[in-house]
RING-type E3 ubiquitin transferase (Eruca vesicaria subsp. sativa), 763 residues
Amino acid sequence: MVEMKISALVDSIYSFLNLSSSRHIDLDPFEKYYKRVEELLSVLKPVADAAAVLNSDLALEERLWKSFQELTQDVDHSRDLFTNWHAFSSKVYFVLQIESLIPKMRDTIVDTFQFLNSLKNDLPDELRPASLEKCIEKIKHLSYEEISSVIDGALRDQRDGVGPSPEILVKIGENTGLRSNQEILIEAVALERQKEIAEQSENNAEVEFLDQLIVIVNRMHERLLLIKQTETSSVSILADFFCPLSLEVMTDPVIVSSGQTYEKAFIKRWIDLGLKVCPKTRQTLTHTTLIPNYTVKALISNWCDTNDVKLPDPNKSKSLNELSPLLSCTDSMTKVSNKSNDWDASPSRSNDSEDRPNHSREMNTDAHGRSSVSSTTRGSVENGQTSENHHHLRSPSATSSVSNEEFPRTDSNENSDASGEIRSGQPLAATTSAAAPRRDLSWRNRGQFWRRPSDRLGSRIVSAPSNEARRELAEVENQVKKLVEELKSSSLDVQRRATGEIRLLAKHNMDNRIVIGNSGAIVSLVELLHSTDSATQENAVTALLNLSINDNNKSLIAEAGAIEPLIHVLENGSSEAKENSAATLFSLSVIEENKIKIGQSGAIGPLVDLLGNGTPRGKKDAATALFNLSIHQENKGTIVQSGAVRYLIDLMDPAAGMVDKAVAVLANLATIPEGRNAIGQEGGISLLVEVVELGSARGKENAAAALLQLSTNSGRFCNMVLQEGAVPPLVALSQSGTPRAREKAQALLSYFRNQRHGNAGRG
C-alpha cells in the first residue's frame, strides 16, 4: 500500500515539475507561485524517491500512507490549478486557491518528515534524522507573503462600508498580475464567468463571495480612471471620447454588437485574443463585425482641431503592446485618494442660464464622395451608443458629394447645440491661437485628459451586474413607470414636472434611455409636443432628443409619428424648443428612410428659416439637420428652392463661426444644377476660393469639392473660378493639403489644363 502511494506521489511530483515548459508558467503571477510549489517539491522529491525503496515494514504505518496520499492529492491539485488556467481565467481566483493550497502542502510535508524521523526502521541516508531535520528546517524557512490575507482585509473593509485604500488596491494588482486596464477588464469578465458557474451549481455563498471580488476589481479600474482624471491637464475633454479599453482618446472608434464604442486597434486585439464579450457591458458579442462610429470620430476630430491637438497613432501606442501600469507611486495614490472625494462632491452641470461658449464642427468630403463631420458634443454622449448599426447609414445617393454622419446631441440646457457644441458645465478649453504649438498626445502625456466620474445613474466602464447595480436599475424602472403615468395627467403642472424628470433621466446614460424607450413614454412625449405650455413642450422635445441617441429609440420616435409634431415645434416653439427640434430631426435623419420622411413632411422650409433667422445656436442646429437631409437626392432641390444657399453663403463670413458647416452643405448642393446655379448667382464662388486659400483643412477639402463640381459642369462658372485667382491656392493645396484635398485640387487643376489645351487646339 505504502509503495503504491509513494509511487503515485513521485509520479505527481515529476508531472508537476514538467509544467516548467508550459507557455503561461512564466507569466505574472504564475511564475511566482510555480516557483513556490517547486521549492517545496524540490525538498520533498528526494525524500519521496528514497521512501519508494523502503522495505515492506513501513506498509504497517497507516498514518504514513495517508500522508503520502494527501500529498499526492495536493500536488495533483496544484498541477491542475496551473494546467486548467487559461487566458480568460481569473487570476485573483487562482491566487486565492493556490495560496490556500501551498500552506496546507507545506504543513503536510513537515508532518510527514517528522513522522519519518520518529521511525526506528533502518532507513536510507536521505531519511535519517539528520537529513530529515535539515529538510524540515528548509521547509520551515520557506515563508511567503500571502496576498490572500490582503484581499480578505479589503473584502472586510468593503463589507464595513470603508472600502480598500488605494495602496491596498495597488498591492492587490501588483501581486495578482493586474497592472493594466486591459488586464483588469479581462479579470472582471473572468470573475463574471466564475460567478455563472457558481450560480449554476446554486452555490450562493460562492456567488456572494465572487460578487465582492468583482467589486474589488471594479474599484481597481475606477482608481485607474481617477489617476487619469487627476493628472495635470491644460486641455479638458469629455469622458466619452476615451476608449474604455485603452483609456486614451479614440482616433478610429468602432461599435461592437453590444452598442459600445472602442478604439479599433484595441477592441480588435481584445477580440483576437478570443474574448467574445463586450469589455464594458460584459454582454456576449453576437458578432464580431466592427462598425465605424463616424459620429464619435467626427466629434473628436473637431475637438482636436478646436484645441490644436494631435492624437497619436493607436496602432503605435505603447499601451497596445506594452501593458500600462496601474501605478504604485505613493504620492499619486495619496493625491487620487484625496481627490476622489472632491470629484464625488463636485457640482452637477450648470443650468440653462449659464453662458455657452462657441465651438465649431467641421464637415469634410472623403475620397469616395462621403464626408465626415467633426463636432464637439452636447453633454454626456454615451460612449459608443450614438449609433448601434452604422452599416446601414452610409448609403448616400450616387450623386451625393457629402454623405451622412451622425451628430449626437443631448440635453440643450446641459452642454451643446445642434452641432454638438459644448455649452456649460465642464467646458472644453478655449480655442488655441494659430501660433500655439501643436500638442502631440503620445503615450507619455496622454494623461492630459480628464474623465468626469459618472453621475449616480451614469454608466460605468466596468459595470458588473452586482446586486447594487440591479437595485439601481430597478429604481429607475419604477421611477420611469410612475413618470409615464404622470405624462398622461390632465394637470399641466404634473406634466411639466414629469417631462422635466424624464428629460434629466434621459440625459444621464444609455441604460436610462433604453428603460425609458421600453416604457412607452415616447408616445406620450410625442403627444406633448403640441402642449400649450412652453416649458412642457421644451422638456418633451429635449427628452426626445436625448432618447434619440439610442438607435432603437430613433425608430420608436419615428414610428410614434414624431416628425410632423417636431415640425410643429420647429415652426411655433420657443427658441430653445426650435433648436432642439432641429437637433432631433437631425438625429432621426441618420436612418436613411427618415431622411425621405422628414423631407416629404415639410421640415426643410422651417429648417431653412431657422438657418437664416434663428439664434446662432439655432443656425448651427439647422445647418446640421440640413446637411444630413442633403444626403438624399430628392431633398437637395427642396433645400435649394427654400432659399438655403443664400443663407449658407452669408454664414461663410468667418465672424459667424460657421464657415466649415456652410461649405460642407454647399458641397452637397453643388452636385445638382439648381445648387450650382444658386451658388453662382449668390456670389458663392469667390468665397469658396477664399476658403481654399485661407480655410481650415476640412473647409479647403469641401470648398475644392464644390469648385470642382461648379467648374466641370459649367464653362461660365469655370471661368469665374479662374478669374477669382483659384489656381495659386489650388496648387498649394495640391501639394500640402490632406490626401482628400490634394485629390480634389489636382483634379481641378488637371481640368483647367485640359480646357486650356483644348481651346488652344481648336484655335
Residues 608 and 637 are 13 Å apart (CA to CA). Confidence is low (pLDDT under 50) at residues 320-465.
